[in-house]
Design a protein that fits this description.
Number of strands: 0
Helix content: 55-70%
Radius of gyration: 19 Å
Distance between the termini: 65 Å
Number of helices: 9
């Protein structure tokens, strides 16, 4: 029987908050149980195992991030959309580093297909339509943008840019200008 006051939603939210505080890799059933003031076995009324706990945090993070990105994109096109989308990802990662890490958690194909992950790809493709990229270039561009955003944000969160006085925001703006330039000019290349 489930302990009063603990719901699946509360369990997931607590794990997500803990991820932001101590890191997604450190989130365990025991750590969440301690945070909730219960014994580990009482959580198994809501989850099967530790992997399910991590999957729930990943699904929550993907949904939150998709919602933030969609809000940022509303009514925007071209470079304005690209910058808003990229900033939504970066801002989310900075505000919720553990949840952002969870959004990268490997999900099984069935779970991934029913998660918010496809929304992320759809939004990226919507931005790219403004650059007139045909397939297979569009797929390459989706991967290019995702890896650029994730790479920059991951390095920034790890403190990799602290060795220079140049502001990370300035380099981020430069990276986005360069992405826009590359996408704009790639669509004009001769076939």
């Amino acid at each position: 029987m489930a302990r009063a006051g603990i719901t699946s939603e509360r369990l997931t939210q607590t794990a997500a908050e803990l991820a932001d505080e101590i890191g997604f890799d450190q989130v365990t059933v025991s750590a969440v149980a301690r945070r909730l003031g219960v014994k580990d076995p009482s959580l198994y009324a809501h989850i099967e195992n530790a992997r399910e706990l991590k999957v729930r945090v990943a699904l929550l993070a993907l949904e939150e991030l998709a919602d933030k990105a969609a809000t940022a994109l509303a009514g925007r096109a071209g470079k304005d959309a690209l910058v808003a989308f990229a900033n939504a990802y970066r801002d989310y990662a900075k505000k919720h580093p553990g949840r952002y890490a969870a959004s990268q958690f490997k999900l099984d194909p069935e779970t991934a297909a029913t998660s918010a992950a496809p929304r992320h790809a759809e939004m990226t493709r919507a931005i790219l339509r403004g650059y007139n990229l045909p397939e297979p270039d569009q797929t390459d561009a989706v991967r290019f943008l995702g890896s650029t955003f994730h790479g920059y944000v991951s390095l920034e969160l790890a403190g990799a840019f602290r060795h220079t006085p140049r502001e990370a925001d300035t380099s981020w703006a430069w990276a986005l200008d360069t992405l826009d330039f590359a996408l704009t000019n790639h669509s004009r290349k001769p076939t």
